[in-house]
């Protein structure tokens, strides 16, 4: 957004209007003169109410120069005390996140220890390779489907470019979600199978103890 910088004709017109005006209009004009610019909406209002039959708009805007508003930056209007409170809250949140991370790691290690499934470096390397391969396959699937949709909408359907882009984005997200759901389902089934296998082993151990 932008405002109009006060040139000589505008300053003179505002000065004359200020002499005749009363509060709160006088204070409003003082603010405009101190700022050095006037919003376009305010200028149109003043011209319609006070200058329409006296000063042409062309004369008021000659020469014309725009005053662009600065882009708002989050936190620029915060007080030092509020910024300090935000920094304190941020540090507390970081500490809480760190403690939760340590707690989750301890739980994970405890579960692995209880299940007797401590991974060797070779097993960890294998799992990492499998995850990288899965991510690559998902990426290839998404790209292939998006390319096919883009090609079909351009050669057969002859859709406008913006429709083609929207359709490609929607289809790509849909395929990505589907691939992730299928992969998570696969991991869930594997975990369930491991859990069932562990229960079978435990039952066998108990039976042996009873026989003895």
TrEMBL record:
Signal peptide residues on this chain, from the entry's feature table: none
Q: Which UniProt keywords apply?
A: Endoplasmic reticulum, Membrane, Transmembrane, Transmembrane helix
The UniProt entry, under InterPro entries, shows: ATPase_Vma12 (IPR021013)
Q: How does it sit in the membrane?
A: Multi-pass membrane protein
- Subcellular compartments: Endoplasmic reticulum membrane
* TM spans (from-to): 134-152, 164-186
Q: Which residues form a coiled coil?
A: none
What is one Gene Ontology biological process annotated in the Swiss-Prot or TrEMBL record? Answer: vacuolar proton-transporting V-type ATPase complex assembly
Single GO cellular component term: endoplasmic reticulum membrane
**This protein's name:** Vacuolar ATPase assembly integral membrane protein VPH2
* Organism expressing this protein natively: Naumovozyma castellii
Q: Which gene encodes it?
A: NCAS0A04420
